[in-house]
Amino acid sequence: MTATAVDRLALARNEHMTFRANMGAGRHGWLRLTPAYGVRLVRERISHLPAGSVITDPFSGTGTTPLAAAELGHTGQSVDINPFLVWLGTVKTRRYAGGTLLATADATRAVVAAARARRGDAGLWQPGLFRIEKWWGPGALQALKALRAAIDAYDGAVRDLLDIGLCRSLISCSNAAFNHQSMSFKAATDDTALLDADDVERTIAAFDTEMATVIASARYDLLGSASVRRGDSRQVLADLPPADLVLTSPPYANRMSYIRELRPYMYWLRYLDAASDAGELDWRAIGGTWGTATSKLNTWVPEAETPVDAAMKAVCDNIAADGGRNGPLLATYVHKYHHDMWLHFRSITGHLKPGGRASYIIGNSTFYQHEVPAHEWYAAMLRALGYRDVRVETIRKRNSNKALFEYDVSGTKPA
Ligand SMILES: C[S@@+](CC[C@H](N)C(=O)[O-])C[C@H]1O[C@@H](n2cnc3c(N)ncnc32)[C@H](O)[C@@H]1O
């Protein structure tokens, strides 16, 4: 094996850098998001900081950074454009008093009893998720609707924890496979159309089990504190105390839609009501490209020049030329993504303390065999803003057959 091949294998093994490593890690494993980064990577990046440091994640996702920061005695703060993720981050990073956890255990028993006592699902609310019968068989769906109705009687922190339990069970009893980026569905067999009382009971029992896990991990106290708020990280983050470290994994330029992956949770928790809401929300996210977001790209015009416009134009011209009918649209996608990240870098620089470090975990991507080197363009943008000691470190290979890597692009804001 050549030295490069050995290096590649070593990088490929770095699974602890990804969401997979979070699944057994207490609150970090509450709900999964494929593009979440691993809590170990975050801990490695913040362990050297003095206790009480302020760490900001401008693209919060599932809240890995603020939770890890609070666990290690720091102040974690994060921002996300997606209201569901703001809720999730808030619930994950909250301190739960013993009384709240006892009340949640009581509420769980009551919710389970109410769901078991339901006969049929007449009059129960169900989410407007397109082709919902593909996601859940009739028994699981009936149980989820009964659980939803029973949970609706609660509010505050107890309700939030019950909702986490509901989210976990709706994934564990779904026909959808969540173990890769593009979800797939088990083929329906004839008998899945019939309501099976065992499926109803299995789903209610799964909720009960999930709640035990959630309550156990909510019990651990946090040494520091964390807050998660809604915002657009292309804009100035007003009212956020300045950060010692900005640590984040931003959206990648790979047309992945977070809304698409989060659909089941967002519908059941009533953050989405119709497919058009999803397109609207995706358009506001950097790199959003789902539903109506795609057609809006056709008429997009940049509001600012970026320091990488010349390099980007060369790559985008190739994508436009080789991508057939979709080429020009994807070239605009790549342009808009980096344009938006430039707006972000400009605004986040005002938020970082002088001498503070910014660290971005980002992957490159390819369109029609043309590499989009986001890591290099991030580094160029940081340099253009006057950052010192700008480094690009390769941390992981992302895909077995393509030249896709993950990098840590970092720099220090001048004192
Ligand atoms: C790769 S994910 C972050 C994953 C996170 N590090 C974790 O461990 O879960 C990127 C996040 O950026 C958010 N986002 C996209 N555009 C945004 C914007 N303009 N402002 C704030 N958040 C945004 C998305 O909603 C998504 O949650």
Walkthrough of the structure:
With 415 residues, the protein is α/β, with parallel strands linked by helices. Helix content is 46%, strand content 15%. The chain contains 15 helices and 11 strands. It has helices spanning 3-12, 39-46, 64-71, 83-92, 98-117, 132-135, 138-151, 156-172, 197-218, 258-268, 275-284, 292-297, 309-322, 327-351, 374-384; strands at 54-57, 75-80, 176-177, 184-185, 225-230, 243-248, 352-363, 365-367, 370-372, 388-397, 405-412. Strand 8 and strand 9 form a beta hairpin. Helix 5 crosses helix 8 and helix 13 (309-322) runs antiparallel to helix 14. The N and C termini lie far apart (45 Å). The protein binds S-adenosylmethionine. The site of S-adenosylmethionine has 22 residues, from strand 2.
Give the SSE string. HHEHEHHHHHEEHEEHHHHHEEEHEE
Distance between the termini: 45 Å
What Rg, in angstroms, do the CA atoms define?
22 Å
* Count of helical regions: 15
Q: Could you give the count of β-strands?
A: 11
List the bound ligands.
S-adenosylmethionine
Q: Helical residue percent?
A: 40-55%
Dominant shape: globular
CATH topology of the largest domain: Rossmann fold
Name of the level-1 CATH class of the largest domain = Alpha Beta
Question: What are the low-pLDDT stretches, counting only 5+ consecutive residues below 50?
Answer: 1-11
Q: Give the strand order of the largest sheet, numbering strands 1, 2, ... along the chain.
A: 5-2-1-6-7-11-10
What would CATH call the architecture of the largest domain?
3-Layer(aba) Sandwich
Per DSSP, what share of the residues sits in E-state strands of 2 or more residues? 5-15%
Quaternary structure state of the chains depicted: single chain
Structural category is alpha/beta
Arithmetic mean pLDDT: 90
Largest sheet: 7 strands, mixed
Total separate domains: 2
